Fold LysR family transcriptional regulator.
Amino acid sequence: MLELIKVFEQVVESGSFSQAGKALNMAPSSVARNVDSLENRLKTTLFKRSTRQLILTEEGQYFHQESAKILQDTNKLLAEMRGNHGIPEGVLRISVFESFGNLYLTSLIPAFLELYPKIQIELELDNNVVDLNSENIDIAIRIGTPQDSRLKARHLLTNYTSLVATPSYIQQHSPIKKPEDLQHHNCLLISHERQRNYWYFSKKQVNKKVSVTGNLISKGGSPLLYAALQGSGVLLLSDWMLNPYLENQQLVKLLPHWTATHSEQGSGEIFAIYKSTQYPKPHIRVFLDFLVEKLKLMALVNAR
């Protein structure tokens, strides 16, 4: 019965028999048979089936609510009985936006795998927002908290941003003494999939919204950073990407007395997002703990 419940819960998480099959390494037909068997044993229908989607019935919603507790309590009990002998293992699927993945995650993963050799990591460097359930992702690292109430988030970094350009660009172009001056400059832009791009500035009680244009737009920050280093334009980007180039003076801060952001609400925070459950799987939990600790140490070093 417990195995049938596990299959049912994975179908709810994944949203389809085929996606649940991928997560469980089972054929979709086997997943469907398991759900049928569970419904027969319960003498009730758990899903409304259609060619497009699976929807929980009222009985299915109640069963999902109660059975999730059973699985969580079971996992907790097994973990308690194993004590320290339960070494985290399994496949850990991580989606992270490319700049953060390249600069931070790829350098940390080897040390993590040395600590936990039974864990296998599948890493996706992708700037598109993924659906953790349908795409079978365990952890997604993104800027901003999730809107989906089924997801949880752990804070990793505060995403401070700075306005920068190379010394050569500053010398060769008109001065930038106030935010409005940027309208006369080539600005390297993060793609927000909208017709016009704006940068937001604040200083004490003054707030300004400036329309900016440029000849390079990218979903990721790396292409924009490389272009800025070649003197192609003015860049607004996260400090964790800019710090090495500010230290060696390849880039210089502009309008230092203003706080510049991509959004009116600020530049946001970076979070590790994962599926909401009272007891995350051990290999997910240890990776989150490892990542939070390492990034905290790196932030302290950078702050000195």
User: Anything to note?
Assistant: Residues 58-82 form the longest helix (25 residues). The mean pLDDT is 85.
